[in-house]
Design a protein that fits this description.
Length: 384
């Protein structure tokens, strides 16, 4: 029964994504509002405007003039889900859908760089400063790069290899923090920003790309990047978001990113150096972020707000590790069952957040919730 429920849920969110033409809202799209001129380009006021949409349990976006947008991240995760479904079924429909999404990503790379890379389709303001529209990030570029890697492994298309080589070039030209214990690849190309999840995502992609590009530089950069992050893993198996004093938090989905990409790196590079880090990190993740009923906590020390990204990443990470640890499959099923029961609408889309007292923010986001759940449920269905 659970397998049928997961498949029905997956079909529902897939249908929602396609009916909405891969467009939707984003947690951080507040600066597309017509109210932005009222901030007078003040970063603090822009952050407040952005957070109004991000934190409100009521969807204020229509009142703020915010419209659903295209999303490179959404296309990437949707393609990833289609590739997984093609592996399961062999149906050409999923191959065509995946390749259509990859064609779109190829055409819609960031115009800021010659090489392939992707970012948000809106301006972004945070405590770290402003990031302009289509300023590429290592997180989304590395993750989309992994989709192209999987597509190339499946279909062997020359176009996908060209994109892989182009992404590899972009990542290898990123600023780097060089330390006695490894090198951290920057979060963006526009300035040095050392963050563990983006560094490990980039490392996993470079290790995979090196198998086809035969660039020793890529594999060595990947090894040094993993040394940076693994040498800074906390004694209990966790990672801070980053090493700066104002970034010492530990959360669900960034930890999941780290684990997934450490495993991918080890597999691509055939490097067992960090196996103990992987084991310790997975043990921490299982014990810390999943409650008995399948509720996926946000932070290590508190559960709320429950964020759909925590649910989707928990399902994907636990399904990914099920081949190594049988306990992970049961946990993944528990999270999926809870999420479908509590966070999926009758029309197929997943809600953004749940706050205390079961107050739900039901806004339909595209990559943050729909595309990531599509990928996660496809992975889990494959394991089942």
């Amino acid at each position: 029964m659970l397998k049928q429920r997961i498949e029905a849920s997956l079909n529902g969110v897939e249908r929602w994504i396609e009916e909405h033409d891969y467009k939707g809202y984003d947690p951080s799209d507040g600066l597309t509002s017509y109210l932005r001129p009222l901030t007078c380009s003040n970063t603090f006021l822009e952050r407040i405007l952005q957070q109004i949409g991000r934190q409100s349990p009521v969807n204020l976006r229509p009142l703020m003039g915010i419209k659903p947008l295209e999303s490179a991240q959404g296309r990437g995760y949707a393609a990833w889900g289609y590739l997984e479904r093609f592996r399961q079924t062999g149906e050409d429909t999923y191959k065509i859908k995946a390749l259509t999404c990859l064609d779109w990503l190829d055409r819609n790379k960031s115009p800021r760089y010659q090489s392939h890379s992707w970012g948000y389709y809106f301006d972004y303001a945070s405590r770290g400063g402003k990031r302009p529209e289509q300023e590429s990030t290592t997180v989304w570029t590395g993750l989309i790069g992994q989709v192209f890697l999987e597509a190339y492994e499946l279909f062997g298309l020359h176009r996908d290899l060209e994109v892989i080589e182009s992404i590899c070039d972009w990542i290898l030209h990123l600023p780097r923090e060089r330390t006695p214990r490894g090198v951290c690849l920057s979060y963006t190309a526009s300035g040095l920003g050392s963050i563990h999840n983006s560094n490990m995502i980039a490392a996993a992609f470079l290790a995979g790309a090196s198998r086809y590009t035969h660039k020793s530089e890529a594999l060595e950069a990947a090894r040094q990047a993993m040394e940076y992050s693994c040498s800074r893993q906390l004694p209990d198996g966790a990672w801070y978001y980053a090493e700066r004093d104002n970034c010492h938090w530990v959360d669900n989905f960034h930890t999941g990113y780290n684990l997934d990409n450490l495993k991918r790196y080890a597999r691509y590079a055939q490097d067992s150096t960090f196996d103990e880090n992987l084991k310790k990190g997975l043990d921490y993740y299982q014990k810390t972020f999943i409650l008995d009923d399948g509720f996926p906590k946000y932070y290590c020390q508190r559960p709320y707000p429950l964020d759909i990204q925590c649910a989707s990443q928990a399902i994907e990470t636990l399904a990914f590790f099920a081949e190594d640890d049988p306990d992970c499959l049961g946990l993944a099923c528990r999270v999926a069952n809870w999420t479908i029961e509590n966070m999926q609408d009758d029309d197929g889309h997943f809600y953004y957040r749940m706050y205390p007292f079961h107050i739900k923010a039901k806004v339909p986001l595209i990559h943050w919730g729909q595309a990531t759940m599509h990928r996660a449920l496809a992975c889990l269905l494959a394991r089942l």
